[in-house]
Amino acid sequence: MSAPAEGVVRFTRRTRVEHASVMGLFLLLALTGFPQKFFPAPWAQSFVDVLGGIDRLRWLHRASGVAFALLFAVHVAGAVWPTLRRRAALSLVPEAKDFRDAAAMLRYQLGAQARPPQFDRFDYRQKFEYWGLLLGGAVMVATGFLLLLPLVASAILGGQLIPAAKVAHSNEGLMAFLVVLTWHIFNAHLSPEAFPGDTTIFTGRIERERLRHEHALEYARLVEGSAPAPLSGPPLGALVMAPLRGALLVLYLPTLGFVMVGTHLARRARAAVRPGRRRPDKPADQSERGEPPASAA
Amino acid sequence: MRSLMLVAFALAATVVAAAEDAAPAPATVQDCLACHADPDLSVTLGSGETQSLQVDAAAYARSVHGSALNCTACHPGFEAQPHPAVDTATRATFRAAFRDACKTCHLDNDRKAHDGVHYQLLAAGDTRAPLCADCHTAHAIQSPARPRARISQTCGQCHAEVVAAYRESVHGRALLDGNPDVPACTDCHRAHDIKDPRQRAWLLETPQMCGKCHGDEKLAAKYGMSDKVLQTYLADFHGMTASLHGRKRSDGTRFTALCVDCHGVHDIKRVKDPESHVIRANLVKTCQKCHQGAGTTFPAAWLSHYEPSPKKAPLVYAVKLFYLAFIPFVIGGLVLQVGLNLWRFWVHR
To answer: Is B228 in contact with B234 (CB distance < 8 Å)?
Structure first.
């Protein structure tokens, strides 16, 4: 890692270990899951043979699944316990500002706003990923155990839940993989800001300049020496609301993508069809765009 | 010049004469029957058994070869007296002496038989294994599948128990009624290149085998059956496992449920038959063959070859439909934003 020992400590060792573990398990689960989902494909059979047969592949998938479930439990406990003791601020729970930030970022990228929004410790994209992983992980763990223990599951919850769990597990897994492929790989590696890769989650440290640029509000607070806003209200209520807020953000972000890009394209299409109302060329658009962001300069 | 022609003529005459000396006049069937029509004509084998040498003249005349072949076509050299020596140590050696006769004409089927389980048994020294003549008979050869019910009779000479079960099955009953659509033994097992049915590789082919008829739209419509049984099987856990089972792994272990594990092998009944293994009343018992401890709710985990629909398996259908919309929604919405981000970067580059 090229990151120097200096810089601001951002992640504890525990967080880094959790990230490395979930990364490894996610890859292992995808690698052993997809040949099962896409079993008619010739590559699936070859891959199964390479790994030593379907039985071994399934053993590996189930073992990694149980490990993932344990990691999930450890992580949730590690977030819930300190919160109940009022020692954590739940900085990954989406707030109203995150919903505004997402829209502001898209407005900025569409050229309708001069500057991108400023973020605190985690931006809305990171929160989306976190809650996508947490909620999707919950679906995968629950359906995974139903499929692992079909006799028990069918006795308690009825038989039809087994094939339903299979459909959900298979599709949710595919979606998780696609989200990681598009959103995570883009934001952490391919985006112009992160390229070729943001190493903070591995080293635990972030360069001062990068922190100032990507998490301006947190940086300002650190410079001032003030603490993050304490948890408002009872911690139990905040914990119950956290996944609901997370789910809301998970649903909100894709919707926002369709709505904002859609309306923008529709406006441009209308402008092109009725040139009288607005000039077909871009000057009017460009003037609204304002200054390019400081980062691009 | 003239003398040369004379020499050539004399030479030719000699050759013809020599040929006539070596082979006596070709024997007709009647020539052979002069001796072999006698029911008492027999030979005592080294093992003490008596081997009849009689040929049923009428049966041979009616056989597919009767009007086409002389005896010596299959028994070359036997026009000579005395006949060529035959190893009469046991019935097996006696039979083996004639087993190469068929491949003179039927080489393709002989080759296939060499790949078959009967030949493997023979090669391993099992004298019970049938030769061509044991299934087709030696002299009374008829078209083996006319009528088709003959096939099961032929196999039943040795596989009596299997054929008895088959005759009570949905396929067997229909075959005996002259139904041309149902499989006889050879439709699944083949006639000559019969594979050992305990082999994993062969077992793993059985779904495709059943699917040949049970995936046929016309047959399905004719008998009011589903033509989706194979694809619904493959879409489920058992079918997926069967598809992914490496073909080179060891035989013998149970690995996943194939068609025959639930429906039965030779005793397959109509699914609504009260004796069927897969009728609802019997299904738990069938599941329990592999899933020890399965309760009454367990069979509902299997959708009975139905595709999920609002009527059959509404929960599964709903989940399927949900993801059909949700995955494009999430991924589409995110990809739009990624694209926008890149576009913005491109514009201000």
So the answer is: no
